[in-house]
Write a structure and sequence with these properties.
The chain is mainly α. The protein is built from 19 helices and no strands.
Length: 461
Amino acid sequence: MPTEVTNRRYALVTTTLAAFLTPFMGSAVNVALPSISSEYGMNAIVLGWVATSYILAAAIGLVPLGRLADIRGRKRIFVWGVVVFTVGSVASALSGSAGSLIVARVVQGLGGAMMFGTGTAILTSVYPPQLRGHALGINIATVYVGLSLGPTLGGVMTQALGWRSIFWACLPLGVVVVALAAWKLKGEWSEARGERFDITGTALYGPALFCLMYGFTLLPAIAGVAMVSLGLAGLVAFVLVERRSGSPMLNIGLFSGNQVFALSNVAALVNYSATSAVVFLLSLYLQYARGLDARTAGFVLVAGPAVQAAVSPLAGRLSDRVEPRIVASIGMGLTVVGLVSFVFLGHGTPFGLVVGGQILLGAGFGLFSSPNTSAIMGSVERRYYGTAAGTVATMRMVGQMFSMGIAMLLLVLFVGRVQITSAQHNGLLPTMRVAFGIFAALCLGGVFASLARGKLHAAER
């Protein structure tokens, strides 16, 4: 029987390997999008859905599955999540059409939702508060390692073996994670065991979030306005139902009565909304406007995630000693500077400046993410760990969806609903300038939300 310290290490290794899978996949697929588009003849909007279908499915599933993990067991849901994600990866590799690929990406998203929240919740369950920030920092650093290797390896694999090889690469790692979790990670964590799962709330939440996020991608069309309005109405109904529920899927009191939790989640939503489409846009810019191949573009895009991976564990350790809001807010400020630098990209911008902007973004995001996550997880009771982890992951997914939605909307306005080729690359530059300007303004507002939260360490004492 392993000691508590040994079990912590297995928990860290297992959840960290799983944390590598999803960002590696996402960033590698971004680099492979032109190849996928060429094979299936996709226009810009359908191509965007290869990325956003995964994000949408994950966002819808995160909070309900986090709550289910609190009730049924976080390890159980985590293991099944890795299985579902791996099956979705294999299905993506075997897809024969754009439609089947998007469906397979939805399956991946649901598996990712089962992993995201439960992995963070397991670490929070096994590590005491004075060590939690460092453990979460290591876990989040691995996310950035995945983001770093994704463009590089994804570009090399796409050029040498074809884009399907990216999805096949997830199969052996998925098998290893399942084996480690099943045989080495001992114990189960389900402090809400015996409580009722809120089916009514789940039935309202999923469709409402889908309408809101999908409608956003249809703007400015009337159908988009209608879908967004329907989604907002559904979320209002969801909040009213949850306030009266004896066992809610999402305890609304976590937002209304917990300033650290509420504002930390707002800061996460804003930060991901401002940064998630950066790699997508830069990948198109480098390959279409600057004429780089997928492999070379991947090497250029590696700088930001590599810096994130280096900074994140240090930021997590620092947040164990210094108020997380201070560390996270400094990180957000650096992110604003990096985003502003991309507003001025042009046909002749030196690649050194492109790399420099990514380094600023990487340092900023590395300083923000692990302290912010540590603040969220440290502000709730143990029985809400899965829900809290699912909520912050939902902020990430919704932020990613909004970020991609903004990018896709601007592509429609400046490029049109056509397949992107080198002939339309002039439309990419105004798209990027407007997008990065919007993202910088969003992130600047997020700095104030980050600073306004309460003092976590004072509350712990």
